[in-house]
Hints:
The complex is a heterodimer of chains A (671) and B (298). Chain A has 671 residues and is mostly helical. Chain A has 20 helices and three strands. Chain A has helices at residues 2-14, 21-43, 47-97, 102-130, 135-166, 170-177, 179-182, 192-230, 234-238, 241-244, 262-300, 308-319, 325-371, 382-417, 428-467, 543-548, 567-573, 591-599, 605-611, 653-670; strands at 422-423, 426-427, 602-603. Chain A has a two-stranded antiparallel ribbon with strand order 1-2. In chain A, a hairpin with a 2-residue loop joins β1 and β2 (426-427). In chain A, α3 packs parallel to α5 (135-166). Chain B has 298 residues and is mainly β. Chain B has a domain at 1-135: Methylamine Dehydrogenase, Chain H (7 Propeller), CATH 2.130.10. Chain B contains one helix and 26 strands. Chain B has one helix at residues 283-286; strands spanning 2-4, 13-18, 24-29, 33-38, 43-49, 54-61, 64-69, 73-78, 83-89, 94-100, 105-110, 114-118, 130-135, 140-146, 149-154, 158-163, 172-175, 182-187, 194-198, 202-208, 213-218, 223-227, 232-236, 244-249, 255-260, 275-280. In chain B, the strands form seven sheets. In chain B, strands 1-26-25-24 form a four-stranded antiparallel β-sheet, with no helix packed on it. Chain B has a four-stranded antiparallel β-sheet with strand order 2-3-4-5, with no helix packed on it. A four-stranded antiparallel β-sheet of chain B has the order 6-7-8-9, with no helix packed on it. Chain B is globular, with a radius of gyration of 18 Å. The chains are: A mainly alpha (671), B mainly beta (298). Chains A and B meet through α18, β3, α19 and α20 of A and β17, β19 and β23 of B. β3 of chain A pairs antiparallel with β19 (194-198) of chain B, so a sheet runs across the interface. Chain B: Keywords: Repeat, WD repeat. Chain B: This is Mitotic checkpoint protein BUB3.1.
Amino acid sequence: GSFIFLNRQKHFEMASVKKDPILQVETTCGSLLYELQIIWDEVGETETDRDKMLLELERECLEVYRRKVDQANRCRAQLRQAIADAEAELAAICSAMGERPVHIRQLQALQKEKVKFDLNLASSFLVWLLQTSSFIYSLWCCFTQSDRVETIRKHLCSLYSHCSVLGMDFNEVVGQVNPTLSDPEGPRSLSDHTIEKLGAAVQKLREVKIQRMQKLQDLATTMLELWNLMDTPIEEQQEYQHITCNIAASEHEITEANSLSEDFIKYVEAEVVRLDEVKASKMKELVLKKRSELEDICRKTHLLPVSDTAIDQTILAIESGIVDATLVLEHLEQHISKIKEEALSRKEILEKVEKWLSACDEESWLEEYNRDDNRYNAGRGAHLTLKRAEKARNLVNKLPGMVEALASKTIVWEQEKGIEFLYDGIRLLSMLEEYNILRQEREEEHRRQRDHKKLQGQLIAEQEALYGSKPSPSKPLGGKKAPRMSTGGAATTNRRLSLGAGMHQTPKPNKKPDQRHNDGALSTGRRGLDIAGLHTRKQSMNPCEQLQSPLVRKPFSPISTTVVASKANIATTIQQQLLATPVKNNNGVTNLEEEKMMMMMMQTPKNVSAMIPIPSTPATVSVPMQTAPTPLNNNNNNARLIPEKPEVVEYSFEERRLAFMLQQSNSLIYA
Amino acid sequence: MNLELSNPPSDGISNLRFSNASDHLLVSSWDKLVRLYDVSTNSLKGEFLHGGPVLDCCFHDDSSGFSVGADNKVRRIVFNVGKEDILGMHESPVRCVEYSYATGQVITGSWDKTVKCWDPRGASGPDRTQVGTYLQPERVYSLSLVGNRLVVATAGRHVNIYDLRNMSQPEQRRESSLKYQTRCVRSYPNGTGYALSSVEGRVAMEFFDLYGTFATGGCDGFVNIWDGNNKKRLYQYSKYPTSISALSFSRDGQLLAVASSYTYEEGEKSHEPDAIFVRSVNEIEVKPKPKAYPNHAA
Lengths: 671, 298
């Protein structure tokens, strides 16, 4: 009995706040008891009766307490049940989503905490209540406390969640708000002030959470950039997947324990720093890689690359930390994209340049090929070579047009861009110009040669008309230089004699008499010469005249002859006699033709000796032959004639025709 | 008959020959083709492409022939099958080809100054078919074959006469007595002699076997028939569009094929298109006339 009063007394003294309604209630109970005591003193209640009354009072009080406690218990049990139900639901949802039921643990922890808290609270309540003797007081407490408990509970929940995420100690944080709240033993302060402070703490922690979350997301972004730059392998990246996946998360989505703790953030920071260092060490590599990429593009587009020294110096600067490698890389990237743009604009012209260059290659090949005299000798692959030559000729025909088109395109490009179009450092237009000049020079040369050949040919033809054969180059077929002829105006060594003709070819008037080294002309072997025993007849005009006339070659003019077989006549008729013979036209039939036919030698073995002179030189020799110095001809085709004499070679129509055909195909190149 | 063949060559005609067995005509051309015509139907039976201008051709029999040209090759062509074999090669363009029935050999003359003999029976095999090669003093311009006698005319107006049975040495070596470059040589059908023509006027020559008269064609576009023994001209056909490059009498002498084809005697110039005419031969045109008769004018 008295112990209660004593305790109450103590509590009454400790609770010093006057305004406290609890205290107020407490005062009322005390005063009632005091009043009771006064009444008993007045009435003269015995001690025994007093004790009996007090015991009764206590008993009745205890019963009320018990009822209230039972009620509170029942409340609690209900709450627990509700929590358990909610938990079960949550677990079911979590398992349906296949997620780890993190929240369950949190909830469980919370629940435990809550339960612990509740228990603590309840027990301290009880203790406290038992230490008072006022049941109204306790009843009042029960009612008024539940709202606050709820608020506090909410705050404490948030605080707990935040602390978990932030890796902070919950008790510590709570204790900072109000030490009583963290003391499991002692009574709790549940004042408004405490509640306010709790609320403020929750808000503060929320701000910290947001701050850290943003920092983490920045770090994750940096991480991703670094990975991208350095092509980090996927295995390395996966370790930090759980961070980078939250890169765009919002605050309330982040709930995992310690996911924003200081340690964790440090951990991520460390990784970013490490990556940075790796990046720095790879910077040289990257710069070189970028540089080679740049060089590659330059090379493909035939631009001169960036100077090496610049890059090397830059690398040194990076290594010594003077220059930020990132800037260099950025610069290089810019340069690369600029070059790529330029390459694109150059593409069309470059393609044309390639075509032009390969056509020039074929042109050179073809020139060499044409100089090769063996090219018609069939060997393996000769057929393919012929095809290539034909293709090459076609290509070379197109060359001038190609060059023209390329030049005009380049000029347009230069005007548009305002810079020169360089190809490996040289202005493309200069290259084209040079090529044109070379080609012109070559054409000049060929034209000169052709004209020279033509002239030669015509001179030869003139001579042939006169003398029955012509000087010619050493080789029968074309492809070489123009035939080396005896100088114009001089007749060949051949004399033209015809069967039965009374005249013979006259030498040039100005011919020196000592040039009669062809006395052997009358011998059998002499080309163009008839055999001894037959008169010769001069065919046509003064050879000088013929040669000097504008190269009008008379059509093949037949000779009118009469057949006379007389050895003697030769001797007598030989002298410089010019006889102009009318040129026969090829139409109409005349006696001349018949006579001509008689020229045809009907040779039978029997008649031969009569008709054909003995190879030995006849007696009558003094024929002042028209001679001309013939160029020394190594390919002496008439070895069995007068070997020491350089011989000139004749052509048949077919040989000339073939030579012309070949020349035709050659000349297409230089046309 | 006076027929102009359809589908003539598109460039100069180097030679044409009637077959010994039929009225098939083999034509070689500067357009690199050898053509086989059937004159009786005026149709082109086959075309065979060479690597360069074809300079000569000849029959073996109605089923095959030989051709040579500026690609230096000697070819045998099997007409129906359209097959060709290369018998061999010279070192320069091959100007002439003849087939010797007497020896069964193909004889070619080339600007490489050789005459070569080939055995066509070895044509399909990998072995060389060349039987012999005979150096000439100069480039070979014309060949003629009668019996066992081969006459070779070269540049420089040389003439070599061989006996095919002994090719080691020419039987005779000659010089043409004509002033000009030898153009064509043809042996007498009776083998007793040969005729030469020179560039002075005559580019083609063919004997009419029966009478020993011969036809000549010239750059003037005329074909004349001659009696060589009497040294008379027997006939002249009307003028052809351009130079006569080749002539050939049919096996029975009833037909004369005339190649009217510019022969390049004046170098490169524009000319009439190349054509082949086949005409009947009348006896009166080719039969010799005794001296007593006056000359027959055109």
